[in-house]
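Lab channel / #folding
Pinned by the channel admin:
"Please post every new chain as: sequence first, then the structure tokens as a reply. Keep commentary short and put observations after the output so the thread stays searchable."

First post following the new format, from NK:
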Amino acid sequence: MTVTRPTTRRSRLLLLALLLPGLLTLGVTFAAPLAWLIRASFSPIGSLIAPSAPWSTSAYAAVLFDPFYWRVAGNTLWLGLMVSLPAVVLAYPIALFLHRSTSRWKGVLTALAIAPLLTSSVVRTYGWMVLLGDRGVINATLQALSLTATPWRLSNNTLGATLALIEILMPYAILAMLSGFGRLNQQLEEAAQMLGAARWRVFLRITLPLSLPGVLTAALLVFVLAISAFVTPRLMGGGRVFVLGTEIFSEATVTLNWPLAAALSVLLLVLFSSIIVLYQRALRALEQ
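Reply from TO:
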């Protein structure tokens, strides 16, 4: 059966009509703000952001030639690594258990695993401030048991921000792994055990390699959310944790240096793009 040209043209017009609302929405909510952000980053430092403003690279020069912002970028990447690795390691057995579970309570257990997402990250951050503060639950318990004479510094530093972000982002890792464990086949594991392979060898040679795409997806998601976090580093860091999110907020709302804030935002966007490219290459290497 041949398809006539008018029918093909009508199908293309129908497809374009169906895509048009989504394309317009993306253009208004994503493409236009992104274009404005890039234009703002090329405005002179200290000037008002307007389409008629002169083009300048002073904001990028201030970012690239200031060692402080290089330290901020390094702190951001380090925080992302320190959050994503423990979050993935802790979420992996939970996701694997939920994936393999055949219990009638599987839906309830999955809901409980991701239930923290129903609570705002701001509320959970304040909860961690209560737990990790100098007079918080943990330090009060340690001092009551005479295990320490002075409170441990568990908050107002990078450690507190890292611990809070690990707990806050773990549900995202669990969801990403559950969606990426489609290649796991329990029959392969049973066949390996029947051939005499130990459980640890079955896990290292079969389970882990087949689940790596889900692990990489979870690591990517948690890493991106961690390096773009603002509320938790701001509150748990007590003003002592400098990452790109907190610096963008400070430049945009405190010093009102919008061109510099826009340049930092573009730098963060470049980091996102680089991480996604690395993720795609790693995933392609696993598939091959």
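NK: The mean pLDDT is 86.
TO: also worth noting, Residues 5-41 form the longest helix (37 residues).
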